[in-house]
Amino acid sequence: MVILTACLNGDRMRGDHPDLPISAGELARDAKAVVAAGAEALHVHPRDASGRQTLGPHQCAATVTAIRAAVPGVPLGFTTIATIERDPQRRVALVRKWTELPDFVSVNWSEDGAAALATACVERDIAIEAGIWTVDDARRFVEHGFAPHCLRALVEPLEQQTAGALETAAAIVALLAATGLPLVVHGYERTTWPVLRWAVAHGHGIRIGLEDTLALEGGRVAKDNAELVGAAREILSRSAGA
User: In terms of pTM, does the model score above 0.90?
Assistant: First the structure.
């Protein structure tokens, strides 16, 4: 299934973009706007009162509640990236304390404790989106055999040269083919739009939002997340009509 996920904020800070959503209310506002623009799922980084990323149960519950009220029924995913909490055991403990659960979480397979974290989420009936950054990540993921417990895999080449990012994406996709998992593919910053177009051409899901890029294709700074999602939806629509 081809899906368009909106990644609303990532680890960016307030000064990075004038319309970056930080608070639960701002994330809910943007969620409504991007769904209207064509997003079918949401990926967010919850924040505390100071604007810092957090896995804390109170802040995560507030984020879930606000977004679900704004866009009922739209799948909502959280990050579990280790830069928020470096201790793998504490990361698992925080997820186990969540009182309001997202529909899925992204678990990065390059990070220490990924398998334990993913297992804890499965035990809590939170779906897993396996974050695969490199070819080595893909090999580890396939060898671990966790794919049957996952919703999909997120292919995330980190290279900032287009040729390198596309080469990595293709190699990861080839390795993941045996799992049968649906894939969402995206790039970052300079490679965002080339990787997105490659993913669309190969029939994969895509991700777009201010977490990945501040700019539209061509370089103009996007007004907001909804404008980025609308541009990606247009690429998908043109591909379907080709």
Answer: yes
